[in-house]
Specification:
Elements (H helix, E strand, L loop, with lengths): L6 E2 L9 E5 L4 H17 L6 H4 L12 E7 L4 E9 L5 E8 L8 H15 L4 E6 L4 H9 L3 E3 L10 E6 L2
Parallel strand pairs: 5-6
Antiparallel strand pairs: 1-2, 2-3, 3-4, 4-5, 6-8, 7-8
Length: 168
């Protein structure tokens, strides 16, 4: 998979969405991220303050430091996710989001598989991510995808759970 090639679907996971790299500052990326942050603000116990929880900024998802993907639906974007290529031992997946009506149809699996493929292409054998305790369905999703619980590895003020996966 090259950086310009869309990732289209995974057999057995429902209708494929076209997953493509975009600028994190593009209209579709900003649209998805606004909905992602709005959902976090509703679901987190004390809300979500973007200045505290999104400290790395969009530049972290610009090549060669990372990549941002958007899943295209028939009329609008239906999901997104980013991966940053940390110097050293791991890549970090961030901002995974799927539009609520599209959840459970395989879009999240498609985005995650594409992010993992980009991490592999960048030379990483390990990916990590963090999550908030208010998102138990996300935790189950990651565990089903082969992620295991690990000790805290960052200082994200909204994280309560940390995961890692060794890429094959």
């Amino acid at each position: 998979m090259t950086g310009d090639t869309p990732f289209v679907g995974t057999p057995g996971f429902g209708p494929p969405a076209e997953i493509a790299p975009v600028s994190p500052f593009s209209f579709d990326a900003v649209w998805c991220l606004a909905r992602y942050f709005d959902e976090l603000d509703i679901r987190f116990e004390a809300g979500f303050e973007r200045a505290r929880g999104a400290s790395e900024g969009g530049e972290a998802y610009l090549p060669p430091d990372g990549i941002f993907l958007v899943a295209a639906g028939p009329a609008s974007p239906v999901g997104c996710g980013g991966v940053t290529f940390r110097a050293g031992a791991f890549a970090e997946i961030k901002r995974m989001w799927v539009d609520p009506p599209r959840r459970g149809r395989g879009v999240g699996q498609q985005i995650l598989a594409a992010l993992e493929a980009h991490a592999r292409e960048a030379g990483h054998a390990v990916v990590r991510l963090d999550s908030n305790r208010a998102l138990p369905e996300a935790h189950e999703f990651y565990r089903r995808a082969g992620y295991g619980d690990i000790a805290r590895y960052n200082d994200n003020p909204y994280a309560h759970v940390w995961f890692e996966k060794r890429l094959g």
